[in-house]
UniProtKB/TrEMBL annotation:
GO molecular function annotation: metalloendopeptidase activity
Gene3D superfamilies, A to Z: Glucose Permease (Domain IIA)
CDD domains given in the database record: M23_peptidase
Annotated region (Disordered), positions in chain: 1-20
UniProt protein name: M23 family metallopeptidase
M23ase beta-sheet core domain segment(s): 208-302
InterPro entries: Cell_wall_metabolism_enzyme, Dup_hybrid_motif, M23ase_b-sheet_dom
Length: 309
């Protein structure tokens, strides 16, 4: 929505975990360090206290990912030894042949999550991940048609069918790995709406905003944020014309309020390919792009992914 917003603040930091010896260690050490930064350091006392932790463990068994995604709304992309099996809070996490994997946390994720690791050699371990809590903004939007805030019964049934259709495409766990190749912004423009904000529509509280809004004029070319397959290109009541792209392993991006499609369902796209033109279809007060990122049915914060600080 075309309402100026401040980027939400978050609290983060290095997390420490205890092991069977009672020694605290930086999050990145056991997992092989923060991706792209090498292994974390540890004190001499900790090294002496836990020799098997550093010596007996083969390097190939490491599971690594940046800890910056360990927050409400966070998105995590990492690497594991090929053949490793992972689960997040009991849900299987697909690991690609080259070890790439992804998962995420919802807006209201609790203070912790459990990552279960089963290595090719048979060793199993559960790790408690500390999830940073965030503060959410409030967004008030007025001037919407009443039918877009409180729909009649016929429209409500349409909305429910569309919700089911969207859930179906987001449930796909494909072997694509576009998510592991990085993301680019789908558009360039002022950010007018942020993820997680509590929304008051025409004075009535409604569900939080689960995307990132770019204030761009109608007809602005929009780009695929990452490589993948177009799984949906259709017209919805709230979203207007929308496109959904599957980037693999349950990771999807959604582009809404479009004025025109430039892709079709089933089409493969590369990162940065044109997919649509922005518009003002659906529930809007003006032209803009609503862009969202999800891991299966969980909407994630796309801002640090496509517009990293």
């Amino acid at each position: 929505m075309d309402v100026a917003q401040q980027r939400p603040r978050s609290r983060s930091g290095r997390k420490a975990f205890g092991n069977q010896h009672g020694v605290q260690r930086p999050f990145g050490l056991w997992w092989g360090g923060v991706e792209g930064q090498g292994p974390s350091t540890i004190s001499r006392r900790a090294v002496l206290a836990a020799p098997t932790l550093l010596v007996a463990r083969p390097a190939a068994a490491a599971v690594s990912f940046p800890d910056r995604g360990l927050a409400q709304g966070g998105f995590v992309v990492g690497r594991a030894a090929p053949g490793t099996r992972l689960a997040l809070d009991g849900r299987a996490v697909r690991v690609a042949a080259d070890g790439a994997f992804a998962f995420g946390f919802g807006r209201d994720q609790g203070p912790s999550a459990t990552l279960s690791v089963a290595e090719p050699g048979g060793r199993r371990e559960d790790r408690r991940l500390s999830i940073a809590r965030r503060q959410w903004q409030e967004q008030r939007i007025n001037g919407l048609p009443p039918s877009q805030v409180t729909p009649d019964e016929e429209t409500l049934q349409r909305i429910l069918r569309e919700r089911e259709k969207l859930a179906t495409v987001r449930a796909v766990d494909s072997a694509l790995t576009g998510f592991a190749e990085g993301f680019v912004p789908p558009a360039s423009g002022r950010i007018s709406g942020v993820y997680g904000s509590r929304r008051i529509l025409n004075g009535q509280p409604r569900q939080p905003h689960y995307g990132l809004d770019f204030a761009v004029p109608t007809g602005t070319p929009l780009r695929a944020a990452a490589a993948g397959r177009v799984t949906l290109a259709d017209a919805f009541h709230f979203f207007g014309n929308l496109v959904v792209i599957d980037h693999g392993h349950g990771v999807n991006t959604l582009y809404a309020h479009l004025s025109a499609f430039e892709v079709r369902e089933g089409q493969m796209v590369a990162k940065g390919d044109r997919v649509a033109l922005s518009g003002a279809t659906g529930r809007v007060t003006g032209p803009h792009l609503h862009f969202s990122l999800s891991w299966f049915q969980t909407f994630l914060d796309p801002q640090p992914v496509v517009l990293p600080a």
